[in-house]
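tool_call predict_complex ligand=pantoate
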Amino acid sequence: MSDPVSLLRFTSVAPLRAAVAAWRRADERVVLVPTMGALHAGHLALMARARSLGRRVVASIFVNPTQFGPNEDFSRYPRDTETDLALLAEAGVDAAYLPEVSGMYPEHFSTRIEVGGLTEGLCGAYRPGHFSGVATVVTKLLNQVQPDCALFGEKDYQQLLVIRRAVRDLDLPVEIQGVPTLREADGLALSSRNRYLAPEERVRAPRLHAVLSEIAAGLAAGGSAGPLVEGGRAALAAAGFEPVQYLEVRDAETLAPVEHATRPARVLAAAYLGRTRLIDNVAVG
Ligand code: PAF
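tool_result ok
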């Protein structure tokens, strides 16, 4: 465990860039882990992976207003910066970057990154503007920090593909790596939003992962998506998920709909348990 006082803190770009530039001059590879805070073991797995990939790790904490819709949980999104900073220090992170909203989006801010195609279905269909908000803030974070590599969890699978695409299309000089989802022992994907679940909802929540895994196993055994998804929807409804926004089988790279798993595929879902929106996905095969 590293000494907690060794965690540098930055709230503005110039001193952060100076620190990163000095590291890079010393040939130290810099890895960025962007987060919205409310850190849990899944984030800490990202930090551990980052440490294994580079000499220096920067974690950003920024609850990005532009990726939340008007009726979403921006104002109630959990914020606990002091605990987050202590966790980052314990995880051996070198620097925490905590930009202010006014610094990230100064007056008359008027540029947005729109990634076509990949953002049209799944979460994009239910969260208009969400991926544009994500792509814009991630592009800014990458430009601000200028890391060699940035890590994103596979739990937000569509987000990972959207970021990869934006980085490729805009020739940003950074490597994007996805990190497998960390799960509770009962299969529930770790998420900052799990803390919204009432105790009896928490008991039912792992059914989402179970249903996705059953569909993935059915596809791997040669089944077709249509009937498997229909059965999965019924199972989710029986477990109290309402509404199920989507439950779909998609190509793992293009997100095109898939009926048979002849290429790498992913089963993805978003569904509400009470007021909490859960998303998850699993690989086929
Ligand atoms: O996945 C998240 O926590 C956020 O969408 C991200 C990538 C930090 C951008 O705000």
